[in-house]
Design brief:
Number of strands: 6
Largest sheet: 2 strands, antiparallel
Strand content: under 5%
Distance between the termini: 68 Å
Number of helices: 21
Structural class: mainly alpha
């Protein structure tokens, strides 16, 4: 199930590629029912065995299965499946990640029947569920419908309970008296505090903002010393040396990582593995290009798996530039830099440096990414983040608008979030200025108007808020929020009769506003 493993390689064992069940794209139902791609499984003779496993997992992941995790109706489930929106829909997205979990963890148990020396299983669902459902966890983020939050949040703890059960099944198949177990994650997740406001967890450069820098590793079983909880700064680069140490094999001379504590020390000197890996091993047919669909190529490029450089190399900071990114295709030819790192790798390496507060290093890497790909928006957005953290707010706004101008995804929500960042810092005037600029650029985006009215009310600029409200309800006459906040601004400006008219109109457009109804009743008492 590991990413970028199709076509399945020729190995001394079994490889189940990530194309057996492809979770993140739309059209999955159609993809599963179509003729399967070649070289999905190695050895090819076992292909049907794993296809049957996948099809069974998809078939079993029906409404009855999903409703155990989230109380959705059969009609809502069927509508979500028919719409086939994947990760853009919590119901369909969860159905897919649940079927994927069953497919790949089930495959790992099947492989274990042959008592392998090494079994590697990738579980994408523990990451995907955060991108899909973290906004619904208590307290739900502001843009989430509370009614939907009550439905979807239940799925998260239940899903992790199911994963724990799967791990229990693995310990039965791979007993710790015979095997060492290594569990690792490449990052954590923001489930409550620190969640991005109004930004998608499933698209564009905003997805990594939901990640927490703290990850986890667990090492136990045969050949492992019991140390309890270990306090250290472990790295994803430590995984491969640890696995090889447990197998009694040498590490690679180019690797940055070290063996994790508790595992046996490396018993042999590192070697260069490159000459030992013949190119023809990458396909079962022994060579020749395998046609890839454009969507799959775009995915691999956006994650940094494909680019000009055939091998990740050292950047100027001395750290490996291997990383993930989800913000569009990589440049080629002269646009690629001399290190071989892709623009996505550079951008995400810089994100790591920002998390470490190494601002000079991060800026140097981001500038390198911009030189390599001038129209790439993500480095500018990360520069905006750096300038916000260093309180250089004019520069932060400049980089935000540069990112927007270069095609930043989730543009409107990102701008709204930027204004909210200023509010959280107590910089209401800056929030108002940013929203005013946003309205000039996007005059038909109603939430900017409403947000600016709110900020003016908080600043005590009630007359300005009322003026904006009067303009907003002309542009958006069917907007309940526009009428509501126009009314609140009018009340703030002591124009009680106008406030009453606008609040009543908002309730006509959306009767399900109990707080507004109470406000109107209090206002009526004041008028009387």
């Amino acid at each position: 199930g590991w990413w970028a493993t199709w076509p399945a390689e020729k190995i001394n064992g079994v490889m189940v590629s990530d194309r057996l069940y492809y979770t993140l794209t739309q059209g999955l139902t159609k993809a599963v029912l179509r003729e399967d791609l070649p070289d999905t499984i190695y050895p090819v003779q076992r292909t049907q065995e794993f296809i049957d496993l996948r099809d069974r997992a998809v078939l079993e992941t029906d409404w009855r299965s999903v409703r155990y995790f989230m109380p959705v109706s059969a009609a809502d489930f069927e509508a979500a499946v028919a719409a086939d929106r994947g990760m853009e829909d919590p119901i369909d997205g969860f159905r897919r990640l649940l079927a994927s979990t069953k497919t790949y963890l089930g495959a790992g148990l099947i492989v274990g029947e042959n008592q392998p020396d090494l079994a590697l299983v990738y579980l994408e669902g523990t990451d995907t569920i955060g991108h899909l459902l973290a906004p619904y966890m208590p307290p739900p983020t502001l843009e989430v419908d509370p009614a939907k939050a009550d439905v979807f949040r239940a799925a998260v703890p239940k899903y992790f309970e199911i994963v724990d059960r799967w791990i229990g099944r693995y310990l039965e198949r791979y007993p710790l008296s015979e095997y060492a177990l290594l569990m690792v994650s490449d990052h954590g997740f923001k489930w409550a505090e620190g969640r991005p406001r109004g930004l998608s967890g499933t698209a564009g450069p905003t997805a990594p903002l939901w990640h927490d820098m703290d990850a986890v590793f667990l090492l136990a079983g045969r050949g492992v010393r019991s140390l309890g909880r270990v306090e250290l700064e472990a790295s994803v680069y430590d995984v491969a040396p640890t696995v090889l140490a447990l197998l009694g094999l040498p590490a690679d001379t180019s690797w940055d990582g070290t063996v994790l504590p508790g595992s046996p020390p490396a018993s042999v000197e590192p070697i260069d593995y490159r000459p030992l890996l013949p190119p023809e091993s990458y396909t079962q047919t022994g060579g020749g290009p395998t046609p890839l669909d454009p969507e799959f190529i775009a995915k691999l490029k956006s994650l940094g798996y494909l680019g000009r450089g055939a091998r990740p190399t050292q950047d100027t900071t001395g750290e490996s530039s291997r990383s993930k990114n989800r913000d569009g295709p990589e440049p080629s030819g002269a646009a690629a830099n001399s290190t071989g790192a892709t623009r996505g790798q550079l951008n995400n390496l810089a994100s790591i440096k920002l998390g470490e507060k190494k601002y000079e290093v991060a800026e140097r890497i981001l500038r390198q990414a911009i030189v390599q790909s001038p129209n790439y928006p993500s480095p500018h957005y990360n520069l905006r983040r750096m300038y916000m953290e260093t309180e250089s707010y004019d520069e932060a706004d400049r980089e935000l608008w540069l990112a927007v101008g270069k095609g930043l995804r989730d543009t409107e929500r990102t701008i709204d979030r930027a204004a909210a960042d200023y509010e959280n810092l107590g910089l209401q005037e800056r929030a108002a200025g940013l929203l005013s600029d946003a309205i000039e650029r996007y005059p038909e985006h109603e939430p900017f108007w409403v947000h600016l009215i709110v900020v003016n009310i908080r600043l005590g600029k009630c007359a300005e808020g009322e003026r904006l409200g009067a303009q907003a309800v002309i542009k958006f006459p069917q907007s309940a929020p526009a009428h509501a906040f126009y009314g609140l601004a009018a009340a703030c400006d002591s124009d009680l009769s106008r406030a009453r008219v606008e609040l009543e109109r908002s309730l006509e457009l959306n009767p399900d506003q109990e707080t507004l109804r109470r406000t109107l009743a209090e206002l009526a008492n004041q008028i009387e």
